[in-house]
Amino acid sequence: MTPELSNDAPHLPPRDPLGHKGTFGTVAVIGGSDGVDERRTMIGAPALAALAALRVGAGMATLAVPASMLSMALALTPAATGFGLPVNAQGELDASGAAAQIDRAMAGASAVVLGPGLGQGVAQQQIVIRLVNLDAIPIVVDADALNALASTREFARELRAPCVLTPHPGEFARLALALELDLTSDAGTSPALRPAAAAVLARRLGAIVVLKGAGTIVSDGLRVWRCDHGNAALAVAGSGDVLSGTIAGLIAQFVRPPHRMSLFDCARLGVYIHALAAERWSSRHGEAGLVPSDLCAEMPDVLRSLRG
Fold first, then answer.
1. Which of 3, 118, 119, 125 is deepest in the core (most CB within 10 A)?
2. What confidence tens digit (pLDDT) does each residue in 74-85 have?
3. 236-263 confidence digits (pLDDT tens)
4. pTM for the full model?
């Protein structure tokens, strides 16, 4: 049975006027890939996630990306710090060597974004499975990390971390297929079926599912929430990276005392802020031409309006 669908506006907690950067948490972003041969270079995705986390109020952001592209990623988000992940001569990640650097990046982190621009391969799969098997830090699992899960046999057994999964319909379909869920092929795209589909996946994994698309759905398996804001301006590469960073930035600030927000509430608040940022931009420019950094630039005013 599908839980009742709600669309109530989530609450944004106040910001501590006496707080410092440690008060508002650290987000570690693990991703990026250095294209060699026919593979694509993906630098912007992790940088955008880190920028979004800072724009939504996180105190610090740390990037863990291939060493060869670290300086370029930090140039895109200069407020972040970074750790370089070792790669071999072919530009492929060294999973065992990367583990130590990833552990350093996660030390002291309050939330993790795993997957933006990470690429696909055995090393990526090993990194993703290792991290979701940890139970200490909430992880927003996005993009290529979702594909790594879907490529892992019986991956549901590996999920021990408090997780927020942020699939678009294609990624959702791959996860559902890997888990052999009893869903129709259009479950991730049909407006009538999306709420139930997200709830089914959330219950199966014991995680929060953010099923992206028009009318983004958030579910913990018991509750289902739909975002009635946003528009076609969000249909651009990189907007999902901004969303994952936004959700992680809220988790870093508000899951801990004194707020103790749930991951479900952080996820729906992140979706809401992301959508309102697109609406603010579109009110001046229309519904085409937005680039992901525009969303980040709108977020401080969205936060002010929600707290006002």
1. 118
2. 999 999 999 999
3. 999 999 999 999 999 999 999 999 999 9
4. 0.97
Question: For residues 243 and 14, what is the distance between their CA atoms, to the nearest angstrom?
Answer: 21
**Any idea what DSSP says for residue 111?**
E
Assess if residue 67 is contained within a domain. Answer: yes
| Residue 270 forms part of a structural domain | yes
DSSP bridge pairs for 224: 5, 219
Instruction: Say if residue 256 is exposed, middle or buried (CB neighbours under 10 Å; 0-12, 13-18, 19+).
Output: middle
CA-to-CA dists, residue 13 to 99, 270, 271, 296, angstroms: 35, 13, 16, 19
Give the Å distances, CA to CA, from 11 to 91, 155, 214, 272, 285: 44, 33, 22, 10, 28
Question: Looking at the 3D structure of the chain, how many domains does it have?
Answer: 1
- In whole angstroms, what is the distance from residue 155 CA to residue 137 CA? 19
Q: How do residues 214-229 score in pLDDT, each as one tens digit?
A: 999 999 999 999 999 9
Range of the domain at 150: 19-307
Burial class (CB in 10 A: 0-12, 13-18, 19+), 68: middle
Cα radius of gyration (the chain): 18
Q: Kind of pairing, strands 163-165 and 208-211?
A: parallel
- The one-character DSSP state at 3 is P
pLDDT in tens, 285-296: 999 999 999 999
Task: Report if residue 12 sits inside a domain.
Answer: no
Residue 258 maps to which CATH number? 3.40.1190.20
